[in-house]
Specification:
Oligomer: single chain
Helix content: 40-55%
Number of strands: 4
Number of domains: 2
Number of helices: 8
Strand order of the largest sheet: 1-2-3-4
Order of helices and strands: HHHHHHHHEEEE
Shape: elongated
Structural class: alpha+beta
Distance between the termini: 105 Å
């Protein structure tokens, strides 16, 4: 009888020792790992994925030290958070590359127009989309400028800028251009990609290099279309001139 009693007590003790509560850290880490998918949509949300990685690593340590359940949840949460964070980084890099290529395409087009003597087209590429003509050919664009005094005056002022004068001289010297990407900045309303172009030309039998800083900008409302970009030129000793749309007329009522 006594042996049976001690045997029952021993069995109950074994059953109690086998019970392990579920780790709250593992549950929280798994949930946060699932929520890490939002990191793909904005770099401002990358902190969620990073926090999920830290929390799941802590959960794995907690499960091992405290003999808790939840090892599988912590591993799954860690895998999800790492996966989504990697996807967010890859998506951000692809978007950055796409933006850079779009901006450089406009910058190259502008510089090609300048070096080929097509000043009206170069001037058009410095205007915001609302102020441009709808892709006319070179002859038509020249006729438009001749027929509109205000546009012709703007072109004359543009041609007198120091950088534009210098580029007109380099066009005669058959200069070749090579771009160097500088940086991409953005806010809620505007994006800007800044380049540094090296123009190589020969003068007096010696090769020279002229550095040309260019800023290519667009309003965020044009983010889905390449035509939103326009060129702004930094004058010597100054910052790039930002070309913005004209302000709305005042309300006379």
């Amino acid at each position: 009888m006594t042996e049976m009693l001690f045997a029952e007590i021993g069995d109950e003790t074994t059953a109690d020792d086998s019970y392990r509560p579920l780790s709250g850290l593992a549950v929280g880490g798994f949930i946060l790992g699932c929520l890490s998918v939002v990191a793909i949509f904005s770099s401002l949300l990358w902190g969620i994925a990073i926090l999920a990685v830290v929390l799941n690593l802590a959960a794995l340590r907690h499960v091992a030290l405290r003999a808790r359940k939840g090892h599988g949840l912590a591993r799954a949460g860690l895998a999800l958070s790492v996966l989504f964070f990697t996807a967010a980084l890859s998506y951000s890099w692809c978007q950055e590359e796409l933006i850079r290529r779009q901006a450089q395409r406009i910058a190259d087009l502008w510089l090609e127009a300048m070096l080929s003597g097509n000043l009206p087209l170069a001037h058009q590429l410095t205007l915001p989309p609302a102020g441009r003509e709808s892709e006319p050919d070179r002859e038509t664009l020249a006729e438009i400028y001749r027929s509109r005094p205000t546009l012709a005056a703007d072109l004359q002022t543009y041609a007198e800028r120091p950088r534009i004068k210098k580029l007109a001289e380099l066009a005669q010297a058959n200069a070749s251009a090579r771009p160097r990407f500088a940086q991409h900045v953005q806010d809620l309303y505007r994006e800007e990609v800044m380049f540094e172009y090296e123009l190589r030309y020969e003068e007096d039998g010696k090769e020279n290099v002229y550095s040309l800083p260019l800023s290519v900008q667009r309003q965020r409302e044009h983010a889905s279309h390449i035509k939103g970009w326009h060129v702004s030129i930094a004058e010597p000793g100054g910052a790039p001139q930002i070309d913005l749309p004209p302000p709305p007329p005042p309300d006379l009522q």
